[in-house]
Give the backbone structure.
Amino acid sequence: MRSVRARAAIGATLVVAVALVAAGLAVLLVLRDNLIGQADLQAEVAAREVAGQLALDTRYEDLDLDDAEDHPVQVTDEEGRVVFVSKGLQAVSGTRSPGVSPVPSASVGATPSPDDDDDDDDDGDDGGRPARGEVSSDDPDLSDGTATVDGKHADYRFAAVEATTSAGITLTVHAGAPLAPEQEAVDTVRGAMLTGLPVLLAVVAGVTWLVTRRALRPVEGIRREMAAITASEDLARRVPEPGSRDEIAALARTTNETLTVLEASVERQRRFVADASHELRSPIASLRTQLEVAEAHPELLDLPGAVADTVRLQALAADLLLLARLDAGEKPGAARLEVGALVREEVSQRAGDRIPVTVEVAEDAAYEVSGSRGQVARVVGNLLDNAQRHAEGLVAVSVAADGRGVRVEVRDDGAGVPEDERERIFERFVRLDDARSRDDGGAGLGLAIARDVAARHGGTLTVHRAPEGGAAFRLWLPRAE
């Protein structure tokens, strides 16, 4: 089942069904317990009422049993023999004895009449017997059973109460309360639940389906728009953003932000490819021309120019390859570098530069960073190349501690960088002096490479105005752990 709406509707319906079934069972159990408790109370009241009459020496035939149909009564003696049953009781179970036929002997369970006791009373001698009987105050024994009264068989709840007559005879009175009302009530509630449950579940499923459909409608709009963008490859399009402030609106905003970044990345890649093609075309065309001329007129071969074009082509290819690796997310190494020594080594290899480089590094200080030695050296070399290209007569490089990192600053006394152009110069293939020849001005990749490498090492590269009036490029790298 792939539909979110269907899964949500089924899930909500199942949860509600389980909750309703559990609640229904709890209600039925509580209702049944309450009704059984009422039946127990009725049975106990009926049993104590008969037991009270027996304790007062009331004869069996004189017992007041007006509700015998609703509360069947059975009386047994100490030996479990039935001595009395209520009128119409034809069968019984769940009591002390299943019998419904009283013992015919008049002496069993019979109580003397008041007239027979006159002489005894006059004599003042009761022979040790109590003047009157009593009813047990203990909680009655309760049990489930059945009884047949006047041909009607039903379930009952029986209560057993003991009564002692004035003659010292202990009788047990079993009185029943019908369970039919409890069963009818439970059946009625159960039937109502079984009837209403499917209807309620259908309502829950329908409402969940409609609510989920309405909630997911913006998602469908986002999906259709994304499919259209994929088909048209037009990254300038954006998915619709709903006016709500929920998760779907956040998803739409994030999707549009991703599309914006993706569009910028693709556009940057297109410009990169176009500029790289343009930059490669010039040295390749120049080299081809020289080789064609040399083929026709060997004496006119400009060998130094061909070598220069080849070197320039090789450098440009290396820059493009490094940028491609950086764009692909290549992580720098984790080697520990001493920046001061690296700067001195890089400057020592530039003996043929147009302007000698001044190095300002403390001899006894250690400036260690973590990263790729080749890439950090490439950054320093690119900054020095840029300074040599623009300096009038001074190029200086210094290394110093800066907070929790190391700062490498390369300064020159050239024209400097206008403030509004200080971020643009770090873009790829950007050169501020368009009149500068490509041979002297480079391809405009050095500073872009330097900033990308600095960012990959967790550092920064910025440009400021130097005290000498030119540009001051500041490379900051975090210290090694």
Residues 247-315+317-327 form a domain with the Helix Hairpins fold (CATH 1.10.287.130). The radius of gyration is 53 Å.
